[in-house]
Amino acid sequence: xxxxxxxxxxxxxxxxxxxxxxxxxxxxxxxxxxxxxxxxxxxxxxxxxxxxxxxxxxxxxxxxxxxxxxxxxxxxxxxxxxxxxxxxxxxxxxxxxxxxxxxxxxxxxxxxxxxxxxxxxxxxxxxxxxxxxxxxxxxxxxxxxxxxxxxxxxxxxxxxxxxxxxxxxxxxxxxxxxxxxxxxxxxxxxxxxxxxxxxxxxxxxxxxxxxxxxxxxxxxxxxxxxxxxxxxxxxxxxxxxxxxxxxxxxxxxxxxxxxxxxxxxxxxxxxxxxxxxxxxxxxxxxxxxxxxxxxxxxxxxxxxxxxxxxxxxxxxxxxxxxxx
Length: 324
Description:
The protein has helices at about 5-55, 55-70, 90-95, 95-100, 120-130, 145-150, 155-160, 165-175, 180-190, 190-205, 210-220, 230-250, 265-275, 300-324; strands at about 80-85, 105-110, 135-140, 250-255, 280. It is an alpha/beta fold. The protein has a 5-stranded parallel sheet, with helices on both faces.
């Protein structure tokens, strides 16, 4: 029969082994947590500081944002301040240096984020107003589909355009589910989480350009539009809301209709007229042909941008003269 002494020795040895195992597990867990934390911190810092240096698109968006935010300083507002906002239609259609040269007595600032739509800019402008930015005139450039859609740029806009207090309202207007809504809150505070899709697209463009081009072509397939009467009703409500938002904050609002090869411009001009919202159509449908557009038939080429910019500058100048 084993002695009590040997039993005690075995028990002590087993306890020692358990303690050592527990310490090893704790040490491994701590190391894993530290590694994961380091990876997350590295990803966040890279998204904030490294990615803008290697991505021309992100660098341009950051520069646009810096210029806009610079007008929180009262001394910058001595001259009229014209803020042009929109997506790639404005980016490709506007000769930015040329229109700035057309207004030597005013600050003309562009703020463009690709793939944005109405709700991106409605809440984005509301956020800018809360920051104390007061343009003399706000010019929003969207086509009919982008004006009536419920879609937003999602996580990216949550970080770059939306105010924290507006995230639930954005989710409601965009028809997001609970998972998508929670993503907005994560993206609002994390540059990496907000930019992860943009970073992925950049890597795909670098690694496999033909595959990236195919994805871009699929993304450009337009969604079917509702009947004209329904489009006008939706556009009326949205133009009324954004016009009132700008008016409350002391800014004139102009809705800029970009050139198109379709005949849907009248939807927006009718909606604007019914709500007494200022609208400008520098190049109405039918006045320019396919030779003024890029291969995609959607964005203006350099020739089209030159003409569009010249016409837009003339109408903005006339509007400022009448206002004065």
